[in-house]
Amino acid sequence: MTKRIVLLIYTGGTIGMVKDPKTGTLVPFNFDDLLGRMPDLGLLDCDFETFTLKEPIDSSNVHPDDWVHLAEIIEKEYDKYDGFVILHGTDTMSYTSSALSFLLENLAKPVIFTGSQLPISDLRTDAKENLMTAIQIASDYDENGDAIIQEVGLYFEYKLYRANRTTKINSEHFEAFGSMNFPALAESGVYLNYNKNLLLRADKKKEFKVHKKLDNNVVVIKLFPGITKSVIDAVTNIEGLKGLVIETYGSGNAPSQSWLVDSISTAIEKGVIVENITQCPAGMVDHGLYEVGLQMRKLGVVGGKDMTTEAAVTKLMFVLASNTYNIEPKQWLRKNIRGELKDK
């Protein structure tokens, strides 16, 4: 039986950095020499090839156009490889991986994001374990020849998460990511254990499809005590605004002042889609729990249920740009299309 082959895509980030011996600064290293730096990769029961973006991106500078470019790379190489590992800076990895989960429809192969908190050259680095296990997951197939993972995942510090359920929770610890509202898809210890009842499966009757449009005319407002009418109005009156994600309190609550209600109502009347998600790390929006939530629903605000900010923003960009989904955008935002929210 031939070995599975994985494409390793380096987009930038700490994981691919080494110290320049002359200056002491961190610079990207040549991933073509990855085996020379990590000879243990040769022990994996798969082969891999590497691809580096022409200009590696600091993840703080990532743009939706970069997400579409990554989706196009996967589309081009989809039939050639059994799985994909995308190396990415941690700061915006949850945004990028969430976006990819929406752009890649009916995915039947693993697309695994990973990175590290320390450079691969550091003595105490977390890069090597993250990379090694991510490649293993991306090459893992069952006895029927089907990929174990058929979705976009994010692997970090011994856990594989559904990408669009993640958020970065720590800038110093190796456990940099969390998935507060959904269990890990797999955990790595002595054995690599998959929670198979949680995994998404591709529809074998349908083809893999790559979407190539995102609309970034969206904005996020995080409510706080003392937020003023002028702030809300300034945001809702942005020229060309199409989508607004509001991070509210608790289960979707917001101040009941008439000016806030009027501002949101005016934005919706102008065609802006307003989505409500909780700013709590865990839990969900329930518009039927309190009077303020009911008022939001009556205005036409979409309840984001238990989505992360990263998933809410990227899904909104995706739905607004899609010729299929933007016909009934509010309905699609409420529906679970890539495992990003609770069905009920």
Helix and strand topology:
Layout: E1 4-10, E2 17-19, E3 26-28, H1 34-37, E4 46-52, H2 64-77, E5 83-87, H3 93-103, E6 104-105, E7 111-114, H4 127-138, E8 152-156, E9 159-162, E10 167-168, E11 177-178, E12 186-188, E13 192-194, E14 209-210, E15 218-222, H5 229-236, E16 243-248, H6 258-269, E17 273-278, H7 291-299, E18 302-303, H8 309-321, H9 329-334
Parallel strand pairs: 1-4, 1-5, 5-7, 7-8, 15-16, 16-17, 17-18
Antiparallel strand pairs: 2-3, 6-14, 8-9, 9-12, 10-11, 12-13
Number of helices: 9
Rough outline: globular
- CATH class of the largest domain, please? Alpha Beta
| Euclidean distance between termini CA atoms | 43 Å
Keywords:
18 strands; 2 domains; 4-stranded parallel β-sheet; 8-stranded mixed β-sheet; Rossmann fold; 344 residues; single chain; 9 helices; alpha/beta
Could you explain how this protein is built, in words?
The protein is α/β, with parallel strands linked by helices and 344 residues long. It has two domains: 4-210, L-asparaginase, N-terminal domain (Rossmann fold, 3-Layer(aba) Sandwich), CATH 3.40.50; 218-334, Rossmann fold (3-Layer(aba) Sandwich), CATH 3.40.50. It contains nine helices and 18 strands. The strands form five sheets. An eight-stranded mixed beta sheet has the order 4-1-5-7-8-9-12-13, sandwiched between helices. Strands 15-16-17-18 form a four-stranded parallel beta sheet, with helices on both faces. Strands 2-3 form a two-stranded antiparallel sheet. Helix 2 (64-77) crosses helix 3, helix 3 (93-103) runs parallel beside helix 8 and helix 5 (229-236) runs parallel beside helix 6 (258-269). The protein is globular, with a radius of gyration of 21 Å. The mean pLDDT is 93.
